[in-house]
Amino acid sequence: MATRNRMPPWHEIFKAPSGHELLIRPIRPEDGAPLQAAFSLFGPEEIRDRFLQAVTELSPETTQRLTHPNPKTEITLVAAESLPAGEAVVGAVARASIIQGTREAEYAILVSRFLIGQGLGRQLMRKLVKWARGKYLDRLYGDVAEENEPMKQLAASLGFQPQPHPQGTPGLVRMVLELDN
Predict the structure, then answer these.
(1) What is the pLDDT of residue 100?
(2) Which residues form the N-acetyltransferase domain (predicted)?
């Protein structure tokens, strides 16, 4: 269940069924170090499903890109402890980025194995859809590993449709939501 009371835009408290309370908010530059430190909280399957390869750490370049999104073309949200940025453990990251020269955005979500199944991925996905609609985009899509049934089911439950990957990449399916603005 999410609540919203006089918080800045894109901020909300998310209360998981487990009792964990997290603050969903836009990422900040000072989240870089905690994000790199929290990377070990993400299991190998989650990392492989998101990065589509085995990655053991978040590179400084990726961290810089994630923590400094261009507000005109992308959004990066985190679900973190209700502590000041730079001190809070980050349990999930969700990002959407407009593909240059199109009216489409690509999404990616990474949720810690400790928070999976709590509804956090759904809430983050809803926020990415809201952002994409607010940008008057035609579609939002994400490339998902064929064996990542939870992500495919989550996306489908929100209206995303599976399509073959445009580059014919084996093992990937593209989940696409046509946005009716």
Answers:
(1) 95
(2) 22-180
**pTM of structure:** 0.84
Give a yes or no: residue 6 inside a domain. no
Low-confidence ranges of the chain (pLDDT < 50): 4, 48-54
Classify residue 55: in a domain, yes or no. Answer: yes
For residue 114, the one-letter residue type is F
pLDDT at 18: 81
Q: Is residue 157 part of a domain?
A: no
Query: How far is the first Cα of the chain from the last one, in angstroms, to the nearest whole number?
Result: 26
Identify the pLDDT of residue 52.
43
Q: What is the DSSP letter of 68?
A: S
Supply the range of the domain harboring residue 94.
12-139
Short-list 133, 113, 111, 135, CA closest to 123: 111
Token digits for 96? 């959407």
Domain count, the chain: 1
163: helix, strand or coil: strand
For residue 154, tell me if it sits in a domain.
no
| Buried b or exposed e, range 119-134, using 16+ CB within 10 angstroms | ebbebbbebbbebbee
pLDDT recorded at residue 48: 44
CATH number, domain with residue 57: 3.40.630.30
**Cα separation of 15 and 33, whole Å?**
25
